[in-house]
Amino acid sequence: MKKPRAREAGIILPGTPGENNAITDVKGVEVGYCTIIKGEPEDYKGPGSPFARTGVTAILPRGKNRSAVFAGRHDLNGNGELTGTHWIDDSGFMHGPMMITNTNSVGVVRDTTSKWMIDNKYYYPLIVDGRPIDGVGYFYPTVGETWDGILNDTNGFHVEPRHVLEALEDARSGSIKEGNVGGGTGMQCHQFKGGTGTASRVLTKEEGGFTLGVLVQANHGFRPFFEIMGISMADLIKGADPVINTFEPKPGTGSIIVVIATDAPLLPWQLSKLCKRVPIGIGKLGSGYENGSGDIFLAFSTANENAYTTEISDVKLLGDDMIDPLYRAVAEAVEEAILNVLFQAETMTGREFNTFYELPQDQVMSILRKHGKAK
């Protein structure tokens, strides 16, 4: 039986979600996954064993149609990787898909995505003397990562080009899976099983009627700091403690990648400012304090379809006086997306029988109801 998401379970969360309560509520955005589950725990005998708990997530801003979108980013803590950011910072554009995987697979994901862009003409050709040069253009896929080395054979490099292509070809709109899927397959969150999560917000007509969605790959957090709706869970949740038979990193070590999509006509510096509101959502659940965490955020806008040009183009701009509701939407959606990770992820045993248990929903909901935070 499918587990309920955080809102479905009865947590009283603020804001109005879109139809799917997902990043794909922003029209045109598609998400695809490749989930790699290989072998049993006893099959792990060291790097390169026939054992994996990992994957790839693909986010296509305007689906499989060629696109360059205005983008901005922000790092809360930079202990992680996000490729393509130099050109995003300089040009304000993101060229190509946004991909997420594990730490050691950034290279193969980037290279394979570049080839996919060439094969599918998912790029803007270089213009020389007024003529486009076929096969030559901008290839800047953006690839983020979080480290899954407690559950996965990260040093075995199990992500292959075929897995990247599967995630890209799997990309679709509508309802999307969460939890132990895609790049989030082998991740932990607040020392429970983590992974992939999503949520969205739709603003009122008076606020502009825009849609904003987020997708997170959550591999962060320390249980003693974990709280939901202002209620500390540290001493209230009993059991479900992780089993770590190998080395255990410093508490709180990990990362979270957050991708924000919106149809609001925001320009790059405004999208960067959206990213600066992500830590509010992370902090409401008790994280964001750790030097060992790569907390890296990117936002893009699907508005201004003709903004990328080699000549002159007109763009729309949302006045800063109208942006406050979008800031709030970011914080709300990030908080809910992380909760959806925890509510959808399932217990996983990985290398050397290390285990992260799923969040005990019955306990959590009982605690929240007792404090008037859930139905």
Task: Describe what this molecule looks like in 3D.
- The protein is α+β, with helices and mostly antiparallel strands and 375 residues long.
- It has one domain: L-amino peptidase D-ALA esterase/amidase, CATH 3.60.70.
- Helices cover 22% and strands 28% of the residues.
- It contains eight helices and 18 strands.
- The protein has helices at residues 6-9, 85-91, 106-119, 161-170, 268-275, 278-284, 324-344, 361-370; strands at residues 30-38, 52-64, 68-78, 93-95, 98-102, 125-128, 131-137, 142-146, 188-189, 192-193, 195-202, 211-219, 227-228, 231-232, 254-262, 293-301, 348-349, 355-356.
- α3 (106-119) packs across α4 and α6 crosses α7.
- The longest helix is centred in the C-terminal third of the chain and has 21 residues, at 324-344.
- The model has no long low-confidence stretch (mean pLDDT 96).
